[in-house]
Every structure is written in C-alpha cells, then in structure tokens.
Amino acid sequence: MRIVIAAVGSTGDVAPYTGLAAHLIGQGHEVAIATQELFADVVRACGAEFRLIPGDIQAAMASEDGEQLQRGGGGLRGALATMRLARQLVETVGEGMITATEGAEALLVNRGAVFHGYLLAKARGIPGYGLELFPMLPTTEFSFGDEPNSLAGKAFHWLVDQAVSRVRTPPDSALRAFQKRIGLKPTGLAAVDDAAAADLDWTVLHGFSPTLVPRPGDWRENSDVVGYWWPHRSPDWQPPARLVDFLDAGPPPVFVGFGSMSPGKAEPLSQLVLDALPPGTRAVFQRGWAGLSAQSDDVITIDEVPHDWLFPRMAAVVHHGGAGTTGAGLRAGVPTVSVPVLGDQPFWSRRLEKLGTSPGWIPAGELTASGLRALITRAVDEPYYRKKAARVAESVNSEDGFGHVAKALENG
Predict the structure, then answer these.
(1) Judging by beta carbons within 10 Å of its beta carbon (0-12, 13-18, 19+), is residue 309 exposed, middle or buried?
(2) What architecture is domain 2-232+398-410?
(3) Strand-by-strand arrangement of the 49-52 sheet
(4) Residues of the chain with pLDDT under 50
(5) How do the domains of the chain map onto residue ranges?
(6) Strand ranges (DSSP E) for 159-242?
(7) What pLDDT sits at residue 133?
(8) What is the CATH number of domain 241-396?
(9) Domains 2-232+398-410 and 241-396 share a fold
C-alpha cells in the first residue's frame, strides 16, 4: 500500500511518525512523510520518502508572534499573534498538501495537517486516519485545562467559543479557499472539525499510553488510545564519546532540555537552571531551540541525542512537557519535572503529577531557580517517584502503538 503520513509542527510533532514509517516499511508498505524541509534528513534516515510541505516552524516560533505565544501573552495581543500564526499555518500547509499527498492509497495525518488531510481524503475517496498525540475527541471524563472559576470567566470563555465557531477569521478564510481549490463546498474550520470528529469512516488513533490517559468511555466508535509511537533510531547510531565519558565519570545526572520551545533568552535561562541545580548535582543540558548551554566538571551541553538511549541513564528529567518527551520519560522509568510553555504541555504536566511519576511542575512564565531546585530535589531524593516511574515504564513498554496502526490499515 502507498501511504503518505503528513506531519506538521515542531520536532515532537514529527519525530514519532518516523518510527511508525519505519515499522510500516518493514510490513511491506511504501511510505512517504510529508513535512517541512527542517525534518528532511530525519525522514530519509528512517527509510521513508521525503515530500515537502512549505514553511519553517523554527523561524515561526522565533518570530515576534512566536515569542509572544511562548511568553504566554494573553489578551488581545496574544489572540492576534495566535491568529496570525494560525493563518500562516493553514495557508502554507494547504500549499503543499495537494501535491505532497498525490498517489496516496491511504492518508495518515497529525493535528497540524488534520483539516487539509481530512478534506483531501474525502475529495479523493481514499481511507484517512487521524493520528493524534493529544486527546482530540470531545469527552466529559476530564478537562484539558484549568476551568474558569468565576461566572464572568465562564461567560467570557463561552463568548470566545461562540466567536471562534461563528466569526469568519483569517485562518477560517484560508481553509475555505483550500476547500474551493479541491472542489469541495467551503464550510470553514469549525464545520470541518465537527465533521471529522463525528465521521465514523475517519479513524482516530491516539499515540500515547492508556496508562497515562485511558480511553474515555464516551468517545465515538473507531477511535482508540493505542500507545506511543517512538521516533526512529538508526541501529548504527553511536553516542558522542565525550557524553559517554561524562556519564561514566560520576553518578547519574539530571537531564534539562526544552526541546523546540524557547521559554526565555538563552543566557539568562541557562543561568537560572544552573542556579536551580541542588549542590553536588550533575546535569546534562540539551541545547535545543532555546540555546540552553553550560559547561563545567558537573555539567555537559549536548545537541540531539535519542531520548530512548539517554533518559534511562538519568536520575531525573526536566523538560517542557511536550507529548513525545513526556512519553520518553515514562518509557525510561525516571521521575520528571515539567516546565510547560504552551499548548498541551500543562495537560501532560498535570497528568504526570497525578500519575505519581512527577513531584510537580512550574509554568515557564513562573519559573524561578528556588522553585525548580525544590522539585528537582524531590524527584531525585524521594524514592517514591523513581519506584512509581519504574512500574509505569513496565506498562508503557508493553504497549504496541505501531501494531495498532498497522492493524487499522489492514482493516481499511
């Protein structure tokens, strides 16, 4: 079967599908991954064909609007920044999806490509699958965020929801133009989202552990929580010698990295994290898009190193709470301290604390050295968190997220 996986977003939004692609190729399928040029090398490294979707997510997040979003800017400025980034995303994904998905006999899409992917699957009459990294179907069993407590707050959120669903916004107009281009009636974002959520011919699989978030009982048929999809790692990969030497030179260190997030300027953020390390604590800083950096006898800075190799060698992990990094920490059986920046990251941070593998979390906008030090100390020194993490890891590592997707494809 000729399969196209369309994945748009940051590293954590794309990397899980490289492992899935490698698995499906091993099952005899022809697989292409459509994504931005930034990820061309990791796509080709997993054995899949690379197909281009225009845009540069790293540049977008480094822009004024991207920085405003990551600073947690609320009010009108935050709303306008979000709207501009959303319009840019809808337009650039639309430009590339039509040609990038040509010849597909099945279309698998992540959240960043779900609107265009759903519409293209319907227009072409081919099977389509939503592969989500966050619970995207409506449920009454849990909340995705902190609910407003006051009556005024609830009224405000209701009005915002009504405006989003009814007002013609720039992102909405961009999707309507895409619908016209592929021969469909223009209906807009809210209508397409509702249609995909209710369409039993649109299979929705969620790539996270049911140990962390069990499948809600009120979800529709043809949807499930199947376990994580892990990034591909070449069997020929070898760790940097300097990192191996550092790990061998002392007790397990604490990992600190914020992935594709930039929760602050590189130098002040690096110094804050250094100040947060408890006395005598060794640490591995991962540079990431934040530019985190420090170097001493007790601290080493690295670039990209597969988390499935690195995390089991850590005493604890400090990260931004992204879906994939959260899963990597669970897989490794180590305690976690989250510093969420935006999006789904606070949700995963709350889930880890509830599960018992994390002593707590601090929003990036409220981060202090003393607060971070207190959580790192608990994660490393209190045996409960490591014991709980080890038990959860057994469950997570028994799941077969790749196999569930392959079975869904076989069943059509």
Answers:
(1) middle
(2) 3-Layer(aba) Sandwich (3.40)
(3) 49-52, 30-35, 2-6, 106-109, 128-132, 203-206, 223-225
(4) 65-66, 73-76, 146-165
(5) 2-232+398-410, 241-396
(6) 203-206, 223-225
(7) 94
(8) 3.40.50.2000
(9) yes
Q: Are 8 and 89 in contact (CB under 8 A)?
A: yes
Q: What are the structure tokens assigned to 81, written together?
A: 């920044």
The residue to which tokens 């992917």 are assigned: 117
Q: Closest Cα partner for 341 from 276, 270, 266, 260? A: 260
* C-alpha span between 338 and 372 (Å, rounded): 9
CA distance 367 to 16: 28
pLDDT score at 174: 85
Element (H, E) at 79: helix 75-100
User: What is the Cβ-side half-sphere exposure of residue 323, based on CA atoms within 13 angstroms?
Assistant: 26
pLDDT in the model for residue 140: 87
Contact predicate 256/284, CB 8 Å:
yes
Tokens 């909340």 locate to 143
DSSP 339-375: ---STTHHHHHHHHHHHTS-S-B--GGG--HHHHHHH
